[in-house]
C-alpha cells in the first residue's frame, strides 16, 4: 500500500542514494541483466495503459482515482524507476532491482506519489495532452531528442554514458553529475505522474538536483 503522507506542493517525491563502491565494468552488461525486467515491464505497461483509461472515466464521473488502480500504477512507475536507476537512467547502484510493485524501502532509490483524495473532473480532459505539451517538448529532449555528432538519444542517456566512462577510468561516479542526472529524472517522473492523472499539481519547470527531494509544505492527512 502507498503512504498517505503527502506534500501540498510536491506530491511526487524522488529520493536516491548513490551506492559506493560501484563496479567499474558492470554497466557494460546491465542491458543484458535487465532483460527479465524489460520483459515483465512490457506487460505491466500494457496494464498501466488500461488502468489509466479506466481511471480517466472514474475521475471524470466521480472526481476520484480508485485507490486500487492508483496503487497498481504507482507500483509500475516504482518498478520502472528502480530498473532505470540500476541501468541506463542513472547507473546509481549495482544492486539488482527487485521484481516488485511495492515500496521496497531498502532499495537505494524511492518514488512516492501522494494519493489524491479528490481530482478535478475538468482537468482530466486536458491535462494529459494539452496542458502537458510544454513538458513534452522538454521530455523529448531529455529522453530522446538530443543530437551530438554520432550520438542520437536523450540527454539523460548521454550524461549517464559520460558518468559510466568516468567510472570505468576512475572507479568513482562524479557526485555533481549524479545530482544533475537525478534532477533530470525527477523532472521526467513528475511529468509522468501528472499525465497519468495521478495528481492535479502541475509539474514545475524547475531542476531540483541531488538525491534528496527538496523540502516542501507538508499536507495534513
TrEMBL record:
Pfam families found in the cross-reference section: DUF4389
Regions crossing the membrane: 35-61, 125-144, 150-171
Domain of life, source organism: Bacteria
InterPro entries: DUF4389 (IPR025498)
Keywords recorded for this protein, A-Z: Membrane, Transmembrane, Transmembrane helix
Name of protein: DUF4389 domain-containing protein
Organism: Streptomyces sp. R21
Lineage, highest ranks first: Bacteria, Bacillati, Actinomycetota, Actinomycetes, Kitasatosporales
Amino acid at each position: 500500500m502507498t503512504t498517505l503522507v503527502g506534500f501540498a506542493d510536491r506530491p511526487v517525491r524522488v529520493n536516491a542514494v548513490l551506492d559506493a563502491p560501484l563496479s567499474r565494468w558492470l554497466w557494460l552488461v546491465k542491458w543484458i541483466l535487465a532483460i527479465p525486467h524489460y520483459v515483465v515491464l512490457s506487460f505491466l505497461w500494457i496494464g498501466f495503459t488500461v488502468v489509466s483509461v479506466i481511471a480517466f472515466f472514474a475521475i471524470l464521473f466521480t472526481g476520484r482515482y480508485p485507490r486500487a488502480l492508483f496503487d497498481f500504477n504507482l507500483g509500475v512507475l516504482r518498478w520502472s524507476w528502480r530498473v532505470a536507476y540500476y541501468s541506463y537512467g542513472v547507473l546509481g547502484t549495482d544492486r539488482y532491482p527487485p521484481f516488485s510493485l511495492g515500496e521496497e524501502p531498502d532499495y537505494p532509490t524511492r518514488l512516492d506519489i501522494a494519493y489524491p483524495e479528490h481530482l478535478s473532473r475538468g482537468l482530466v480532459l486536458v491535462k494529459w495532452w494539452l496542458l502537458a505539451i510544454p513538458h513534452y517538448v522538454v521530455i523529448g529532449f531529455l529522453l530522446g531528442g538530443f543530437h551530438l555528432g554520432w550520438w542520437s538519444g536523450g540527454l539523460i542517456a548521454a550524461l549517464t554514458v559520460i558518468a559510466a566512462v568516468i567510472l570505468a577510468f576512475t572507479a568513482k561516479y562524479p557526485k555533481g553529475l549524479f545530482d544533475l542526472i537525478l534532477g533530470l529524472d525527477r523532472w521526467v517522473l513528475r511529468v509522468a505522474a501528472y499525465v497519468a492523472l495521478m495528481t492535479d499539481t502541475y509539474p514545475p519547470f524547475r531542476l531540483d538536483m541531488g538525491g534528496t527531494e527538496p523540502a516542501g509544505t507538508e499536507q495534513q492527512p
